[in-house]
Write a structure and sequence with these properties.
By secondary structure, the protein is α/β, with parallel strands linked by helices. 32% of the residues lie in helices and 27% in strands. A five-stranded parallel sheet has the order 6-7-8-3-9, sandwiched between helices. A four-stranded antiparallel sheet has the order 2-1-4-5, covered by helices on one side. α3 crosses α5 and α4 packs across α5. The radius of gyration is 17 Å and the shape is globular. The model has no long low-confidence stretch (mean pLDDT 90).
Length: 214
C-alpha cells in the first residue's frame, strides 16, 4: 500500500564551515514509515535532523511537510513535529510532571495531567513523580524526555540517538514506543548506533556522507 507523502526533502545541501557534508539529498516519507539515517561520525546525520526540524537552514533545497515548505508553514509544522536531540531538554530543578507541564506550555498546548502521570508510569517513572530531575539517573532523565514525545501527541518524531543512556529494558521500551507510534500512522526519522528490533515496521535506510567513513 502506498501512503501519501507527508515529509519530504528536495535537493538538500548542507555545509559545515568550508566543508560540504552532503548535497542533492532527498527522500519521501509517509504515515507508518521510519527513516533510519546512517553514516559515520561527523558525516552530517545530526546536521540533517536539524534541517528537518527547521533549527538549521540548508545551503540549497528545502524540506516540505504536507507539500508545503516548512519555512513557510513553521507554526503548523511545529505543532505536528517533536524533536529529541542528544540533550534531554529537561530542567533539573523540576519534577518529571513539572517538566512535561513546562514543555506543553512552551508549545501552547494543554496537558492532561492524568495522561501525563499515566505516561510517566508507563515509562517506569512512577516512583520518581515527585523527585527533581537532578537526582534522577541519566537513563531516568532520558525517559522523562521520551515521555515528552508521547504527551506532545506529535505525528512526526525526529530522534537523534534516542537510546543514549538506556539499559536493555529502556531500549526494549523505546522499541515498543516506536512500534506503537508507527502503527497509529506516525512517522519517525532517527539516528542510532545501537541495533533495534522492530519487527513489522517499515524501516527505510538513508546513507549520509561517504560510505567508506561509516
Amino acid at each position: 500500500m502506498t501512503f501519501p507523502v507527508l515529509l519530504s526533502a528536495h535537493g538538500l545541501e548542507c555545509a559545515r564551515g568550508d566543508r560540504t557534508l552532503f548535497t542533492g539529498l532527498g527522500f519521501e516519507l509517509g504515515a507508518g514509515e521510519l527513516l533510519m539515517v546512517q553514516g559515520g561520525n561527523g558525516q552530517g546525520k545530526t546536521s540533517l535532523l536539524r534541517l528537518l526540524t527547521g533549527l538549521s537552514v540548508p545551503v540549497a533545497g528545502e524540506v516540505r511537510w504536507r507539500g508545503r515548505a516548512i519555512a513557510k508553514a513553521r507554526e503548523d509544522y511545529h505543532c505536528e513535529m517533536a524533536y529529541l536531540g542528544h540533550a534531554n531538554g529537561i530542567k533539573e530543578e523540576l519534577t518529571p510532571l513539572e517538566n512535561l507541564r513546562f514543555q506543553a506550555g512552551l508549545s501552547g498546548q494543554a496537558l492532561d495531567e492524568a495522561l501525563a502521570v499515566e505516561t510517566l508510569r508507563k515509562l517506569g517513572l512512577g516512583r520518581c513523580l515527585d523527585l527533581p530531575a537532578r537526582v534522577l539517573s541519566f537513563g531516568q532523565r532520558r525517559r522523562v524526555a521520551l515521555a515528552g514525545l508521547l504527551t506532545a501527541a506529535a505525528l512526526l518524531w525526529i530522534l537523534d540517538e534516542p537510546l543514549t543512556g538506556l539499559d536493555v529494558h529502556g531500549v526494549a521500551l523505546v522499541e515498543n514506543l516506536l512500534r506503537e507510534h508507527l502503527k497509529r500512522g506516525g512517522l519517525v526519522v532517527m539516528t542510532t548506533h545501537q541495533p533495534l528490533t522492530l519487527d513489522g515496521v517499515t524501516v527505510r535506510a538513508m546513507q549520509v556522507g561517504r560510505r567508506e567513513d561509516a
